[in-house]
Amino acid sequence: EDPSLERHFRGHRDAVTSVDFSPNKKQLASGSMDSYLMIWSMKPQMRAYRFVGHKDAVLCVHFSPSGHLVASGSRDKTVRLWVTSAKGESTVFKAHTATVRSVHFSSDGQSLVTASDDKTVKVWTVHRQKFLFSLSQHINWVRCARFSPDGRLIVSASDDKTVKLWDKTSRECIHSFCEHGGFVNHVDFHPSGNCIAAGSTDSTVKLWDIRMNRLLQHYQGNSVVNSLSFHPSGNYLVTASNDSTLKILDLLEGRLLYTLHGHQGSATCVAFSRDGDLFASGGSDEQVMVWKTNFDAADYGDVVKPQKYGSSVDGTHGTGSEMDCGIHHKKTKTQDSGRTQEQQEEETSLTNTLEHIMGQLDVLTQTVSILEQRLTLTEDKLKECLENQQKIIQSKTS
Asked: Where is this region: Disordered (predicted)?
């Protein structure tokens, strides 16, 4: 079954910038350029709450793991923590000196990480409501920052075209990923914590293994990627793009699974619910949409041994390193137990062969994408040489 539109929320008076489900899925929070935070009830006929407090566009929202708090960041340079009751009370965090683009709670709910146009990533304590420290190595606006599932790492994405990985304890930048050709709008950790995905204005989504710091997958779209979200199984990724579409990528097969059209104008944000049954999207059309995921539950309930992948990113041929990034392969469902041992063995060996071929294909895809990148670089260099030659000839003749 394909994903289907389940609910439709109208109430914002300007583009929606951010969406997030409460952990129990009873509420959905959204932020908008209209400077309001809205909390929508997932129960039909229940009223929505409009939270007033920010003096300018609300650019990001995130529920705490307990669901009792919602954090929001705004163009008014502040971060607010809201209690999700009808009163809509909030406390203000001030430390950023420019627009706040991203807010994210750690999985234990104790810390908050924020990212801003002041080029810094900041970490706060939630209970003492205190600013703790800044991470400042980006040289342009920081669009997004996320804690790893275990809370030990932070990843950030910036208009300086880099994705940076930080150690929360030592506060040092462990690695910078510089493969994007445009501003990096969004980044997040895979549920396993072993890899990250980033979407960029260069219309690509890239996945890196952060243990080897190597590029695993590269999806080329045809429009700016504004936002992305991993399915909790870790097997799928949903993206929101400027061409108004939402795309669901199958990370096991390394291919595009669905393209969904719902928004008029850019799709600005997207997020799966904590259990993965639903995902929500927001757009410049002021609408918030809730979609039923409808993937076959059996596809992501089973966890099978990870597949061997050759690592071909350094151009040398694979060492057969494990690409077990928590992306697990689907189990074939055994229907009738009346089949002979031989048939089952044949099927298993066939499945293994197919999985091996898929792995080899992935390696080829990665290799081709790297070769393409190298070709582009070579072409650029060649162009530069020719231009320089022209200049030399011109200066000699003049």
From this structure: 310-349
